[in-house]
Amino acid sequence: MQRLWTPAWIVRHVAMVVLVVGFLGLGWWQVTRAAQGNALSFGYAIEWPVFAGFVVFVWWREVRHALRAAPGPSTAPPPSAAADPEPVTTTPAVRRPVRAVRVPAAPLDGADDGELAAYNRYLSWLNANPGSRPGDYPG
């Protein structure tokens, strides 16, 4: 439990308490406004306690995560070089992107249409000149 009393965790605990008290206070304020006849405040009177519950949920989840991820005493024997002669390779967390070469597709049957050919030339020009506007097309 000492892991949860570091300066960073104390700030988290205080922030959780301040947010929950603030959200519940805002919820109570909306209840009093709704009692005075403001119909919209009924929705907010429900919303603020939900926010407070979400803060408690996230705080509890982070506490559980910190307690589970804590290093404990290791019961496994130390690895020896003779027991495992092959090095263990790990998969990198970030992989290099795959580069795909773009090759224009072969024309289909009946693609000898003049308008289609002109449109394809226009698209090829736009692809070759990425910074230009369509109005700059010389054709």
Automatic annotation (TrEMBL):
<feature type="transmembrane region" description="Helical">
    <location>
        <begin position="9"/>
        <end position="29"/>
    </location>
</feature>
<keyword id="KW-0812">Transmembrane</keyword>
<feature type="compositionally biased region" description="Low complexity">
    <location>
        <begin position="81"/>
        <end position="96"/>
    </location>
</feature>
<keyword id="KW-0472">Membrane</keyword>
<keyword id="KW-1133">Transmembrane helix</keyword>
<protein>
    <recommendedName>
        <fullName>DNA-binding transcriptional regulator of glucitol operon</fullName>
    </recommendedName>
</protein>
<feature type="region of interest" description="Disordered">
    <location>
        <begin position="70"/>
        <end position="96"/>
    </location>
</feature>
<feature type="transmembrane region" description="Helical">
    <location>
        <begin position="41"/>
        <end position="60"/>
    </location>
</feature>
